[in-house]
């Protein structure tokens, strides 16, 4: 099997966590290492980004770290978000609103209890062209038989309901992790798409259960789910595109007590996807001829940019090739240390051209 080399347009990562403060200073500098020049930045800071002023201030802080990146700003769906805020956000260039069901993941305590409470907000978003980004899980509830393994599947009726109620509202089901999610996105119209992470193309539930650095929300699932994700990548045609959900945590938060949910992939956003596709070819889950230049251009960049209406006028390009590079050891900043996914493992070599 001989994949590549590939020369591609600069990638766009439509789901990243850059945090703030010293952590942001450490991880934001790794974005370009993964072949990415455009990022859709999650708003689940402490406190969450719920106003236009907060969003613009946060963007300014990130630009001060690396001004070569196009940071796309997002608001956190919250009771203080009103139709007036949506219209203000549109004027300010904010692209979307992220929904977190209360309590399902990192910094989601201020999240949504009932989506019906936001009908006027969703109507305004539909009119203004803002995107609704859904963390597609329901909170675990043993009495209702809900665990982290079926939390995504249990959420999918909500996706269907929102799409039926607001058919022109652009919706992204974030970090799809199940065959059910892939099928649900495919069953919806053109205004509904899904993002797929690089790590979910590698991981199974056994990995998450045995290695804290493979634990994320949503958790990795079963072999048939991973296969569905891989096949969704190569068969995307615009329905699925890259959103790594790269989520840095200091190693102390991963190793001590109740481990924090998040896998850090930012420095190898595109490279890990290619490695996952290679492994899938070896297992016979996809075909080598499926991994084409056109597919990678779409999944890494064109599909997401088209959906969001975000042009890349930079003309920047990247080259990915097989070499002797391995994934680096920990990223160390001032008072923070983050372990990348698959540290020490072989990876593709990336250069900007």
TrEMBL record:
<feature type="domain" description="Amidohydrolase-related">
    <location>
        <begin position="80"/>
        <end position="177"/>
    </location>
</feature>
<dbReference type="GO" id="GO:0006207">
    <property type="term" value="P:'de novo' pyrimidine nucleobase biosynthetic process"/>
</dbReference>
<dbReference type="GO" id="GO:0005737">
    <property type="term" value="C:cytoplasm"/>
</dbReference>
<keyword id="KW-0479">Metal-binding</keyword>
<dbReference type="InterPro" id="IPR006680">
    <property type="entry name" value="Amidohydro-rel"/>
</dbReference>
<dbReference type="Pfam" id="PF04909">
    <property type="entry name" value="Amidohydro_2"/>
</dbReference>
<keyword id="KW-0862">Zinc</keyword>
<dbReference type="InterPro" id="IPR032466">
    <property type="entry name" value="Metal_Hydrolase"/>
</dbReference>
<dbReference type="GO" id="GO:0044205">
    <property type="term" value="P:'de novo' UMP biosynthetic process"/>
</dbReference>
<comment type="similarity">
    <text>Belongs to the metallo-dependent hydrolases superfamily. DHOase family. Class II DHOase subfamily.</text>
</comment>
<protein>
    <recommendedName>
        <fullName>dihydroorotase</fullName>
        <ecNumber>3.5.2.3</ecNumber>
    </recommendedName>
</protein>
<keyword id="KW-0378">Hydrolase</keyword>
<dbReference type="InterPro" id="IPR004721">
    <property type="entry name" value="DHOdimr"/>
</dbReference>
<comment type="pathway">
    <text>Pyrimidine metabolism; UMP biosynthesis via de novo pathway; (S)-dihydroorotate from bicarbonate: step 3/3.</text>
</comment>
<keyword id="KW-0665">Pyrimidine biosynthesis</keyword>
<dbReference type="InterPro" id="IPR002195">
    <property type="entry name" value="Dihydroorotase_CS"/>
</dbReference>
<dbReference type="GO" id="GO:0004151">
    <property type="term" value="F:dihydroorotase activity"/>
</dbReference>
<dbReference type="GO" id="GO:0046872">
    <property type="term" value="F:metal ion binding"/>
</dbReference>
């Amino acid at each position: 099997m001989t994949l590549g080399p590939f020369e591609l347009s600069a990638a766009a990562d439509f789901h990243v966590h850059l945090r703030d403060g010293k952590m942001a200073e450490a991880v934001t500098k790794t974005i370009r290492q993964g072949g990415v020049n455009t990022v859709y930045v999650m708003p689940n800071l402490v406190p969450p980004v719920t106003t236009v002023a907060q969003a613009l201030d946060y963007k300014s802080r990130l630009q001060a770290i690396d001004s070569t990146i196009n940071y796309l700003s997002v608001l956190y769906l919250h009771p203080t978000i009103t139709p007036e805020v949506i219209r203000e956000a549109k004027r300010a260039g904010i692209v979307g609103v992220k929904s977190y069901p209360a309590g399902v993941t990192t910094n989601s305590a201020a999240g949504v209890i009932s989506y019906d409470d936001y009908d006027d907000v969703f109507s305004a978003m539909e009119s203004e062209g803002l995107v609704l980004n859904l963390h597609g899980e329901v909170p675990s509830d043993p009495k209702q038989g809900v665990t982290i393994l079926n939390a995504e599947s249990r959420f999918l009726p909500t996706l269907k309901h929102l799409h039926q109620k607001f058919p022109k509202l652009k919706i992204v089901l974030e970090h799809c992790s199940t065959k059910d999610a892939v099928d649900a996105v495919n069953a919806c119209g053109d205004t509904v798409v899904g993002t797929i992470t690089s790590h979910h193309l590698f991981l199974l539930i056994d990995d998450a259960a045995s290695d804290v650095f493979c634990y994320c929300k949503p958790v990795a699932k079963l072999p048939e789910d991973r296969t569905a994700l891989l096949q969704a990548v190569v068969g995307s045609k615009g329905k699925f595109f890259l959103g790594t959900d790269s989520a840095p945590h200091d190693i102390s938060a991963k190793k001590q007590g109740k481990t924090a949910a998040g896998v850090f992939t930012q420095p190898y956003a595109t490279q890990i996807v290619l490695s996952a596709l290679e492994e899938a070819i070896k297992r016979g889950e996809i075909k080598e001829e499926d991994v084409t230049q056109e597919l990678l251009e779409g999944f890494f960049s064109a599909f997401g940019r088209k959906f969001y209406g975000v042009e890349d006028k930079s003309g920047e390009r990247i080259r990915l090739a097989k070499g002797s590079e391995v994934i680096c050891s920990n990223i160390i900043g001032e008072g923070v240390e983050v372990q990348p996914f698959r540290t020490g493992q072989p990876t593709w070599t990336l250069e900007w051209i």
